[in-house]
Amino acid sequence: MAKRHLVDIACEVRSNDPKKKAIAVVDGTTEEVDGRERMKWFWLPRSEIEINDNGTVTMPEWLALEKGLI
User: Fold this and answer.
1) How does residue 2 score in pLDDT terms, banded at 50, 70 and 90?
2) What is the pLDDT of residue 13?
3) From the centroid of its chain, how far is CA 18?
4) Could you count the other beta carbons within 10 Å of the beta carbon of residue 44?
5) What are phi and psi of 28, to 5 degrees?
6) What would the mean pLDDT of 7-35 be, rounded to a whole number?
7) Is pLDDT of 3 > 80?
8) What three-state secondary structure class fits 70?
9) Domain limits of the chain?
10) Which residues does 28 contact at the CB level (< 8 Å), separation at least 6?
11) Is-contact 28 2, C-beta < 8 A?
12) Cα–Cα distance list, 55 to 9, 27, 35, 40 (Å)
């Protein structure tokens, strides 16, 4: 079995409803929407992540790459 490579991403959890299958985080990056700059949100599947007390979220490296977090 292949070893899973985990990474810790510094981010702020913005939506963490335990009834939902995903959480929303921001990492400080922005995007332009309708001519205005706004924080870029990333939705992460709850089944693949762990929220840490130190302001990081642990996830598989493939997920962080897929979402553009690294």
Assistant:
1) low
2) 94
3) 16
4) 21
5) 95, -10
6) 94
7) no
8) coil
9) 6-67
10) 11, 39
11) no
12) 8, 10, 30, 17
Structure tokens at 15: 């939506």
The whole-model pTM stands at: 0.85
pLDDT score of 24 more than 90 = yes
Per-residue DSSP letters for 1-69?
A: -PPPPEEEEE-EEEE--TTSSEEEEEEEEEEEETTEEEEEEEEEEGGG-EE-TTSEEEEEHHHHHHHT-
Provide the residue type at 37 as one letter.
E
- The mean per-residue pLDDT over the stretch 48-68 comes to 96
Give me 31's structure tokens: 């995007």
